[in-house]
Amino acid sequence: MTDVAHTSEPTPHAPAPIKEMLDRLGVSYREVNSTTGLASNAQRVQAVLLDDAAGVLMVLFPQNQLLDLNRLSELTGRTLTVMKPSRLSQALHKHELKVLPGLPTLSSSPCLYDERLLKEPNLLLESGEEDVLLEVSVDDFRRLLAQANPGRFGEPLLDIQPNQTRPEADDAEITRAVTHFTARRIKQRLDETLEIPPLSKTAEKIIKLRVNPEATVDDLAGVVETDPALAAQVISWASSPYYAAPGKIRSVEDAIVRVLGFDLVINLALGLTLGKTISLPKDNPQSATPYWKQSIFTAAVIEGLARAMPRKMRPEMGIAYLCGLLHNFGYLVLAHVFPPHFSLICRHVEANPHLDSSLIERHLIGITREQIGAWLMRNWEMPEELVAALRFQAYPVYDGPNATYANLTFMAVQLLRAEGIGSGPAHPIPPELYERLGLTPEKAQECLSRIMGAEAALRELASQLPH
Asked: Which of 24-33, 41-50, 179-188 has the lowest mean pLDDT?
């Protein structure tokens, strides 16, 4: 008999067709609310549908592993990629499911499972309904795998250790990674190997203005107006419904004085200019949030969170906004530096939605987007606040120099992931992080709600930028 776990709130149940199938097979199970946090990742079964010209393959592996597509290719002799979201949606809709259950008996497709799943006494499978897991014994799980084939194709996460705390080692790790993937395997100076394009003249002028304490609105307007595309974007920003400026914005100076302010415009202009220094990659993970949409939403949330902080704790607003605009800049750099391998990163991101990109990148190329993005900003002599934000944005316990900017970036990214903006799982925000920033979960949610309430206006801003 099914034993339903009791929670303080009504819990949804597994779909009726899934229950009927398990009952028919004589498989005992218990419904568990996935939000209780009681399960270890070793117990949770990650299911993914892959395909190629030969057909569909279901793959099952524990969530404490990274699905390595290279090993899977060696094992199967096939070049498999994740099924397109549209096809997956059709398959789920056919059975009236919301998420893919880890049940190989659900379809006629062949199934491959990582044999290390069988080391756990009990396993937790997706039921097909969000937030509802099915706990089954390993013996019952074996019965579900009667027609499936075992293998070893996952990489334990304990064997992948992104460098979160030692930025002094970034130069050596980036050099090693670039050298490893350089066709001729010749060690060169780092800046020669990376072949990063130089800063534009506009970016150089803006950087000089930023460090000039006597810079005026006229100086800034003059620099922005030398770049017609940038000038048009600044005016469009000020004219956006998001800022609800009264009257028509007729000039860059108008945008600065009446709507955006000097600090925001100089950092906005710098962020937009740097963002266009490296082209957007043509390949992206399926269902990825467009680069500029993610950047603009993150910048808006960071700005909102910063304004909600106690006045004496607030960071510099313009820099905070810049951190949001450029938080994912390392993604562009990876695509630029490792073009043959960037597609492999994208395919692994698709196959491992339960993992942060840092684990995937560390496993495949030895460095992360956070490392390489921060390295480039430091070499371009960007503000140290921005360098810290990019470098430590995935490390919520960071409390070193300029920690406020890194902490705000982490919080904004996680809040937006929970809303489906960005890639990777949404992690809980530690209570001590709220305390460090002088915020509460309620205040953070209020900020997020205000931003999501202006979603249409922010989408319009993002649509004006290169895609």
From this structure: 179-188
Q: What CA dihedral angle connects 215, 216, 218 and 220, to 10 degrees?
A: 50
* Lookup result for tokens 């130089």: 198
State the fold for domain 167-197+278-463.
Hypothetical protein af1432 (1.10.3210)
β-pair partners for 61: 46
Give buried/exposed letters for 276-315 (b at 16+ CB in 10 A, else e).
bbbebbeebbeebbbbbbbbbbbbbbbbbbbebbeeeebb
Residues near 68 by Cβ (< 8 Å), separated by ≥ 6?
Answer: 153, 154, 155, 348, 363
CA distance linking residue 295 with residue 392, whole number of Å: 17
Name residue 44's beta-bridge partners: 124
Coil/strand/helix, residue 382: coil
Q: What is the CATH number of domain 3-159?
A: 3.90.960.10
Q: Which residues pair with 126 in a beta bridge?
A: 133
CA angle 70, 105, 115 (to 5 degrees): 40
Six token digits for residue 394:
């995935």
Residues making up the chain, counted from first to last: 467
The pLDDT of residue 243 is 85
Count CA atoms within 13 Å of residue 360 on its CB side.
27
Give the number of other Cβ atoms within 10 Å of residue 357's Cβ: 24
The lowest-confidence range among 157-161, 194-198, 228-232, 241-245 is 194-198
Which of 90, 122, 129, 131 is CA-nearest to residue 107? 90
Are 334 and 373 spatial neighbours (Cβ–Cβ below 8 Å)? Answer: no
* Euclidean distance between CA atoms 50 and 350, whole angstroms: 10
Which burial class, exposed, middle or buried, applies to 58 when counting CB atoms under 10 A from its CB (0-12, 13-18, 19+)? buried
Q: Say which amino acid occupies 350.
A: E
Where are the domains positioned within the chain? Answer: 3-159, 167-197+278-463
Please give the C-alpha separations between residue 221 and each of 148, 252, 382, in angstroms, as whole numbers.
Answer: 65, 6, 21
Is the Cβ–Cβ distance between 387 and 378 less than 8 Å? yes
Amino acid 3: pLDDT: 44
pTM above 0.90, yes or no: no
Phi and psi torsions of 286, nearest 5°:
-55, 140
Q: In which band, very low, low, confident or very high, does the pLDDT at 191 lie, cut at 50, 70 and 90?
A: very low
CB of 50 within 8 A of CB of 76?
no
User: Tens digits of per-residue pLDDT, 138-171?
Assistant: 999 999 998 899 999 999 999 998 988 898 888 8
CA dihedral 451, 452, 456, 460 (to 10 degrees): 50
